[in-house]
Amino acid sequence: MSLNVTNLPGIAPNVSILLKDCTPQLCSLNYATLKYIPSLPGNTGFMAIFIILLVGQSAWWFYRRTPSFTLLMWIGILLEIIGYSARINMHTNLFVQMPFLTNIICLTIAPVFFTAAIYLTLSRLITHYGAHNSRLSPQTYTLAFITSDILALALQATGGGLAASSSNKSQSQIGVNIMLVGLSVQVLSLSIFMLLAGEFLYRVRKDRKLTAAHNWVARKIERPPAPREFFKLFLCGYALSTLLLLIRSIFRVAELAHGFRGALANNEVAFMVCEGGMVIFSCLIMTIFHPSVFLGEMWGEGRPFGRKGLERGLRQAEEVGKNGEGNMGACEVEVCEVVYMRPWPAPRPI
User: Fold this and answer.
1) What is the CA radius of gyration of the chain?
2) Which range, 37-46, 116-125, 135-144, 329-338, has the best average confidence (pLDDT)?
3) Could you give the C-alpha distances from 82 to 25, 47, 76, 99, 296, in angstroms and in order?
4) How many CB atoms lie under 10 A from the CB of residue 59?
5) Which one-letter DSSP state was computed for residue 23?
6) 153 closest CA partner among 112, 100, 103
7) CA distance linking residue 236 with residue 272, whole number of Å
8) pTM given for the model
9) Coil, strand or helix at 169
10) Which tens digits make up the pLDDT trace of 64-105?
11) What pLDDT score does 7 carry?
């Protein structure tokens, strides 16, 4: 049942009206779910961009087949589309709870699925470069960070639903506090992830130098040029994508710290830049630099690295040995595998 707001302060005089029938012309925005009218062009544009990104991810799945990564991206992008469609609805239905509730829940939890896709990508990179370079095993990365994502997702969804549907301020604040805990879990998880990922890439670079020095001393040929160009750009892209999602999560924590009626939560420019903009650019990077392009068969659904990737590495080593390049034919299979299966070019011996 909608509240009768006839003759209340901020309501047009001599008008008998229910809250759900209010418009900005008849009722003050103090009674609305937001203190501003969401931009129709801006939110429509954002929704259109996410639809394009959904088509792009679907095309990659059709040609490359990375089910786990694509499924997570699909869910996240679909939630973004639903969230922005709700904001479009709020342009004309700003005094109705349902569009606001849909907007809050969908846009809050959607990035959780994008971070999960990034976690999966790092686990494949670890098995690709060698688990000895990582502080944690690929399985541990996947289990630990996906679990943190599920916890953050549950807290944000529960808090968002409670805050947006509550009938009094105290219940609404409880919901906001639960959402803050969920977002804080996401910020902490992303921060730890970035530190561990940075350490892993540092160890990989150090390991490459040691491998090059070992091969030079043993008079073994260096690996050929990388078969996939722009691999470093791919790594930098995913680092930037993770950073953008971290910035977005920090913004949402600051936004909700003062509740839904706070100044930051009612600043549309800040929302469009720090929420929509950060997520769009992150998804754009993850679509352009799709991991299937750079990891290919080595994405290895199921087991880390996958049997096909290992077989291809062994074939590469055997082919080099048969061609008699340098002294490579006499090297051990394990050494060949380590040297030849990594797409970073080995540094020149000093």
Assistant:
1) 25
2) 37-46
3) 27, 8, 10, 10, 31
4) 12
5) -
6) 112
7) 24
8) 0.77
9) helix
10) 778 888 999 999 999 999 999 999 999 988 888 889 889 988
11) 52
% helix, strand, coil for the chain, step of 5: 75, 0, 25
Contact yes or no for 253/184 (Cβ under 8 A)? yes
Instruction: Report the distance separating Cα 161 and Cα 192, nearest Å.
Output: 28
pLDDT tens sequence across 257-269: 888 888 888 999 9
Q: How many other C-beta atoms can be found within 10 angstroms of the C-beta atom of residue 201? A: 18
| Token pair in block for residue 303 | 């087991």
Say which residue the tokens 């973004």 belong to: 80
Cα angle 222-225-230, degrees, rounded to a multiple of 5: 140
The angle subtended at Cα 298 by Cα 294 and Cα 300, nearest 5°, is: 130
- Report DSSP letters for 52-99, one per residue: HHHHHHHHHHHHH--HHHHHHHHHHHHHHHHHHHHHHHHTT-TT-HHH
In the numeric block, the tokens 């690709």 are attached to 128
Of 310, 325, 127, 298, the closest CA to residue 228 belongs to: 298
Collapse the DSSP code of 136 into the 3-class scheme (helix H, G, I; strand E, B; otherwise coil) and give the result: coil
How far from each other are the two terminal CA atoms of the chain, in whole angstroms?
77
- Name the residue among 272, 271, 252, 255 with its Cα closest to residue 263: 255
Tokens encoding 206:
């150090």
Rounded distance between C-alpha atoms, residue 18 and residue 41, angstroms: 28
Q: Give the separation between CA 166 and CA 173, rounded to whole angstroms.
A: 9
